[in-house]
Amino acid sequence: MKFTKMHGCGNDYVYVNLFEETVKDPAAVSKFVSDRHFGIGSDGLITIGPSELADFRMRIYNADGSEAEMCGNGIRCVAKYVYDHKLTDKTEITVETGAGVKTLELTVTDDKVESVRVDMGEPILEPEKIPVIADKTPVVDEPIIVGGKEWRMTCVSMGNPHAVVFVKNLADFEIEKTGPLFEKHERFPKRTNTEFCELISRNEVSMRVWERGSDETWACGTGTCATVMACILNGYTEDKVLVHLKGGDLVIEYDRAANHIFMTGPATEVFHGEIENSTMKCE
Ligand SMILES: N[C@@H](CCC[C@H](N)C(=O)O)C(=O)O
């Protein structure tokens, strides 16, 4: 199986081009390739293939093999892959995801994609659609007991579920202790991604993320959008925010008139490789 390793702000995936390759058991392949000791090393697997609804279709599998609806950093890398590998010459493309069709604008320098602006669509705030067990809409600054302590969360779906929690002293925050308890908390029927954030100003936020199915990652595009929406719902920031993540920065803009969120950020190709299906025990 030929693959390409790419990342967006350090959120890294193994990408497989389904125009050339077949992946029979993506959940098992994702678990194998994601292993940083016995596999390739990544936060999961992303496949790029044909679509009947859009220019391309992407599917995203977390490191534990579970399939997610959408990946913000991944979709920017998909745009870079299809343009740089000459599957398209368009600089505005559409990509089908489990969270609907997204439109992307590519910024190209020396015939390579440098950054991508994605229309991430409407933030979803109804608890049953996120899903989170709560009795009010939107779920803003809502108390939740996790690990014997009361926290406050704001919940947003960007096609996938997010709980946003504001903390002080983010650098020292014990994310590996609290993240898994949020992820598997009974109030999240489909588990959740959790963003822990510290406000810097009305236009700047720092964020760390515990991802459903992939543990702590260095960035999360959908999580960054959910964070900015949570900041706006709590009255903490303006509509355009620079978000600092462990692996880089993303710019998120909420267009109130359209009720759409736009994400702009980099996409990077690291290396290509080939791996035997027998090595992955997925023939
Ligand atoms: N890293 C991603 C989100 C990947 C999926 C997530 N772990 C989930 O299960 O919903 C991003 O950049 O958005």
UniProtKB/TrEMBL annotation:
GO cellular component: cytosol
Reactions listed under catalytic activity: (2S,6S)-2,6-diaminopimelate = meso-2,6-diaminopimelate
EC code(s) of this entry: 5.1.1.7
Any single GO BP term: lysine biosynthetic process via diaminopimelate
Keyword Isomerase in annotation: yes
Listed SUPFAM superfamilies: Diaminopimelate epimerase-like
GO molecular function term, any single one: diaminopimelate epimerase activity
Enzyme class: isomerase
Full protein name: Diaminopimelate epimerase
Provenance organism: Roseburia porci
Gene name of this polypeptide: dapF
